[in-house]
Amino acid sequence: MLKTEIQNHLETKLIPFWKNLCDKEHGGFYGYMDFNGTIDKEAVKGCILNSRILWFFSSAAKMIQDDTLINYADHAYEFMKSFCFDSQYGGIYWSVAFDGKVKEDIKHTYNQAFAIYALASYYDVSGKKEALKQAFQLYELIEKKCKDEKGYLEAFSRDFQPVNNEKLSENGVMAEKTMNTLLHVFEAYTELYRVSRDERVEKNLRWILEIFETKVYNPKLHRQEVFFDKDWNSLIDLHSYGHDIETAWLIDRGCEIVGDKNLTARMEKMTKDLTECVYKKAYHNHSVWNECEKGVENKNRIWWVQAEAIVGFLNGYEKEPDRTEYRAAAEDIWQYIKENIIDPRENSEWFWYTDENGNPAHKPIVEPWKCPYHNGRMCLEVIRRL
């Protein structure tokens, strides 16, 4: 039933919604819809949003064997190729205006990674070698300009001079390295390796896993640290439940793609611990809390956290079939999503979050960070796994 319901949700709710945001006049997809469902056709178009839409239509087309979706992936790709790439200095801009003019020319490692993720998936379904070539150009750029001997750096000016990491620093800190960027470089490289089997990328995946194991993962607290200085010293007492459950299944997926049983067994010690800790600490009242900062729980039910929890608990159940409580939790969270997170109104999608009482936050339905990535990927992972 879970697979049937979620595939139906993907095909009748998510895909039609994002199709309707296609900007046929200026290219790409509209970048903003407010809580009331009003589209701002002249809103900024985040390049992360466009990358995630490109990934979504590419991956959905392959998973459900719907070739009509490739047309929407083509549309997103043409916009990326025409407007998001910097032809002078290389890399992907942070954002462009509705008509493609550069809005913010900052270069962020996180942003480059999502473009790689999207281009690799698009190549996989379209067969366009140009897209794979562009993915490798971004890969080589990250490896040359966006890392030091200890890990991946964060934010840069247009010509790749270091700048403050305002885009991915939160909770009152300014981080020089983040778990979030490291995770999504790993995710992007996993997809790039899956479609290319390039040995350089495999070496990077193994290196990143070592960083997670020795610098990011905190075995005493059964969690990952989140924000760091350049030497991987944690800057804040913060437990991000959504990122931990997401990391657990993404690392397991990366190990699966690499195909090294010894590496998989080593990493599962960490991923099983992260999954169990989120289950015990954050899974309450049919859903998963957001985070805990300095001992204070944020109990908002964020849309993407619920989506990642479904995949994470299903993954935990697959790894340990005797943990039937994980499978039950995934089904329970889906029920919560249906009742509280999915917007029942016409021509809408998921609410950003609900509070402890199930009241939806009056935040945008679409904006540069609100996209079909987490919930769309949850649907595709459930279909793939079940």
Poorly predicted segments:
none
CATH fold-level label? Glycosyltransferase
What's the CATH class, please? Answer: Mainly Alpha
Count of DSSP-assigned helices: 12
Within the largest sheet, what's the order of strands? 1-2-3
**Whole-number tally of structural domains:** 1
Helix content: 40-55%
Distance between the termini: 10 Å
Q: Please tell me how large the radius of gyration is.
A: 19 Å
**Given the C-alpha coordinates, what overall shape results?**
globular
CATH architecture: Alpha/alpha barrel
Task: Report the mean per-residue pLDDT as an integer.
Answer: 98
Please indicate the percent range of residues in DSSP E strands (runs of 2 or more).
5-15%
Largest sheet: 3 strands, antiparallel
Element pattern in H and E: HEHHEEEHHEEEEHHEEEEHHEEEEEHHEH
Please provide the count of β strands.
18
Q: Could you state the oligomeric state of the chains shown? A: single chain
Written account of the structure:
- By secondary structure, the protein is mainly α.
- It has one domain: Glycosyltransferase.
- Helices cover 54% and strands 10% of the residues.
- It has 12 helices and 18 strands.
- It has helices at 2-19, 47-63, 69-84, 109-126, 129-145, 179-196, 199-216, 241-258, 261-282, 303-319, 324-341, 374-385, and strands spanning 45-46, 95-96, 102-104, 107-108, 147-148, 151-152, 155-156, 177-178, 217-218, 223-224, 227-228, 238-240, 283-284, 287-288, 291-293, 296-298, 301-302, 353-354.
- Strands 1-2-3 form a 3-stranded antiparallel sheet. A 3-stranded antiparallel sheet has the order 12-15-16.
- Strand 9 and strand 10 (223-224) form a beta hairpin.
- Helix 6 packs antiparallel against helix 7.
- It is globular, with a radius of gyration of 19 Å.
